[in-house]
Amino acid sequence: MRTDVAATLTMSSPEPATALLQIAVAAPVAEQLTVVSGGVAIEPEEIEVDGARVHRLQLQEGGTTVTYSASAELGGPPRKVTPAEWAEAVRPSRYCPSDQLEGFATAEFDPHLPAAELVPAVAAWVHRRLVYTSGSSRPVDTAVDTLLAGQGVCRDYAHLTITLLRALEIPARLVAVYAPGLSPMDFHAVVEADVDGVWSVVDPTRLAPTSSLVRICSGRDAADTAFLSLFGRIARFETMTVTATTDGPLPAPDDAPFPLP
To answer: Which of 66, 139, 177, 227 is deepest in the core (most CB within 10 A)?
Structure first.
C-alpha cells in the first residue's frame, strides 16, 4: 500500500536562530523538503542521529516556512531489537520514570506473562484509564502526572504505556509517525515494544490503525522525538498542517502489536 504524507510548518524570529526538524519519513520512496526563511530559500543540513533523520536549519530574521512531502510503501521486514536498543529502552527516561511505578505496575499486571500478552494488555489498560483531552497536558508532564490526571493526548498515552512496560521489564520506546485515518490530523505518537526480539507497535489511543502508520523517528520519549526544537529565546512556532493518506482502505484500530518497518 502506498502512503502520501505532507507537512507545512511556519515559525518566526526577530533575529537569526537555529531549529532542529524531525518530520522526514524514515524510509521514503520519494520526498521533497523546502525551507524559505526571511524570504530566502535555505538548504537544510541532515544530521545522522540514532532512530531519526534530523534536519538542522539556520533560520534568518523574519518568518520561516517549512514544506515537506513524501511517499512511502507500507510493509517490509520487521526491525529486530539490538542489544544497545534493549539497554536504552528498558531504563527510565525523562518523561517515563519507570522506576517510580514498578510497584504499581506489578500490582496491576502479571509480570510473568509473556510480552506478547503484556504489551496489548497494558495498551488496553491505558486506553481505558485515560480520557483523550486536547490541551489537557503540559510539555513537562511525565507519565506519573498523566496517571494522576487521568487524561492527556497521544504523547501522554504513549509515555504512560512505555513507563508501565519498562516497569514490567519490557523494553519500550516512543515512535513519532504519520497516521492515515487520524482525526484531527496531526503528527502522532505511538509505542514500540520488544515482543520476542522484534519491535512491535501498539497505539493506546486507538485513534489510527497501526498497520497504516509511517515511521518518522523513535526515541526514549518525546524529548528525543519532537517534530521541532527551536533554539533562540525569542524564536516562535506559529502554525502547522499535516496530512497522511493511503491508496487503499484502512482497517479498524486495535491493540494487537504490529511490527512497524
So the answer is: 177
pLDDT tens-digit map of 30-67: 999 999 999 999 999 999 888 889 999 999 999 999 99
Fold adopted by 83-224 = C8orf32 fold (3.10.620)
Provide the β-strand partners of residue 11: 64, 237
Asked if 211 and 261 count as a contact pair (C-beta separation under 8 A), the reply is no
Domain 2-74+227-246 - what CATH class? mainly beta
**What cell was used for 52?**
531519526
- How far is 132 from 146, CA to CA, in rounded Å? 11
In the numeric block, which cell numbers belong to residue 156? 501522554
Burial class (CB in 10 A: 0-12, 13-18, 19+), 144: middle
Every domain of the chain and the residues it spans: 2-74+227-246, 83-224
